[in-house]
Amino acid sequence: MAYEAVIGLECHIQLGTRSKMFCGCPAEFGAEPNSNVCPVCLGLPGALPRANRAAIDAAIRLGLALGSEIRGESVFARKNYFYPDMPKNYQITQYERPLCEGGALPVTVDGEERSFALVRVHAEEDTGKSFHPERHGDRRVSRVDFNRAGVPLLELVTRPVFRAPVECGAFLTALRRLVRWLGISGGDMEKGQLRCDANVSLRPAGSEPLGTKTEIKNLNSIGGVMKGLAAEIERQRRVLEQGGAIEQATLLYDADREVLAVMRSKESAHDYRYFPEPDLPVLVVDEAWLAEARRRLPELPWTRAARFASEYGLPPYDAGVLTEQRDLADYYEACAREVDEKLASNWLMTEVLRVLKDRGWTLAEWSERVPPGRLVELLKKVAAKELPGPLAKQVFGWMVEEPGGTGELLDRHGVRVQATPEELRPLVRAVLAENPGPVRQYLGGKSATLGFLVGQVMKKSGGQAAPQVVQELLREELEGARRGC
Ligand SMILES: [Zn+2]
């Protein structure tokens, strides 16, 4: 029997706010352990939480971007369970009336435009962090750092809309792009800024009822999510094909060893006792707040990609690559307004992105060295064929290392572009004399031969001739020859 996988994701997005969700402690990463704590995030008696407006605002903006419905009134709840890294013995989250409901994330999967529906997005707080076990002399100890306890999180839950791990990978990539685009989170899975748990079940292909699902936790990279899911789908398929039954369980995926391990079975599943948080008032988001959040919402990445395709005539692939990061899209537009749009796209996607990758630079670090205007000056010369391609690439290389405009760089490196008919005509005549075959072909009507002849002149000039001038001179000489014969 053929089986179909049904997958739903639960993602946690750590917000990049300055302070924690319910107190004023810094939410920074990497501070001295247990230094960013106070009575509220340590859960000391009598401490009163207060919701962080910037975190709620981030949740609203994400909800608006996803087309979710934003509730005017939502409530916080206590999710009760015991864990050593959670000093209050409950987590403040949202349960029955979450801030954002519904919505969908547009995602490109294998070149196809899809949209994956969401159940909800709500605000909550993170737990602390345990380190265990560590060896101290002859003892093995566990340690807890509460700096992370109370850091703002958004929880985003999808409907069971995915049928394959590759769709989940594309979804997480798109979600990471979106949270970075909105400036609400670093979105780095390796740093725990974006985390993902997955629910997966199998059912006979074409049937409606859902099978028993398992949950995979600890998926801390996009590749890990896809591999973990593929492993679990394969495991369930084998069990079902042998006539067995899937048992509800929570699994942990070990990315290093690429294996799944059972963390807890149904019998030991948590029974969270949710109840409304009595220390926090109903969270009210009025029309003015919503309108203001809507006004500050940037043009969204998928809208911008569509506009790049229509306004600049870019292929969908280019539009997708250039909108992977908001500052890359900004950089591109600054160039495309000044110079041929496709030429700018080609240079950004190949040359600029290659340098970024090789050097490990961010686009901000790149723009500091090469602001759009500097690149545009070079690209204008390429577009006008005033600079041969290889020489343009050479100038680009110098640009990365040194200050100065295109002309200055050429001078500094002692390269002079041969661009006058006087200096190029002898080269053109020599090439025509050396290539009687191609010349005959050209005169016989095969105009594509011109490209070959241009290449020969370029070679003779040591790559320093302006191709536009070479092309004009060749045409002139060849027309002269045509009239002559
Ligand atoms: Zn605190």
Could you outline the blueprint of secondary structure elements for this entry?
Layout (H helix, E strand, L loop, with lengths): L2 E12 L38 H13 L3 E2 L2 E2 L2 E4 L9 E4 L6 E2 L2 E6 L2 E14 L3 E8 L2 E7 L6 E7 L6 H17 L12 E11 L9 E6 L2 H20 L7 E6 L4 E7 L7 E4 L6 E2 L2 H10 L4 H12 L3 H7 L3 H11 L4 H19 L3 H7 L2 H12 L5 H13 L4 H7 L8 H14 L1 H8 L5 H12 L6 H18 L1
Parallel strand pairs: 13-14
Antiparallel strand pairs: 1-11, 1-12, 2-6, 3-17, 4-5, 4-16, 6-8, 7-8, 8-11, 9-10, 12-13, 14-15
Helix pairs in contact: 1-4, 2-3, 5-6, 7-10, 10-11, 13-15, 13-16, 14-15, 15-16
Bound molecules: zinc ion.
Your description of this structure?
This protein has 485 residues and is α+β, with helices and mostly antiparallel strands. 41% of the residues lie in helices and 21% in strands. The chain folds into three domains: 3-289, no CATH class; 299-412, no CATH class; 421-484, Arc Repressor Mutant, subunit A, CATH 1.10.10.410. The protein is built from 16 helices and 17 strands. The strands form four sheets. Strands 1, 2, 6, 7, 8, 11, 12, 13, 14 and 15 form a ten-stranded mixed sheet that branches. It has a three-stranded antiparallel sheet with strand order 5-4-16, with no helix packed on it. Strands 3-17 form a two-stranded antiparallel sheet. The longest helix is centred in the middle third of the chain and has 20 residues, at 222-241. It is elongated, with a radius of gyration of 30 Å.
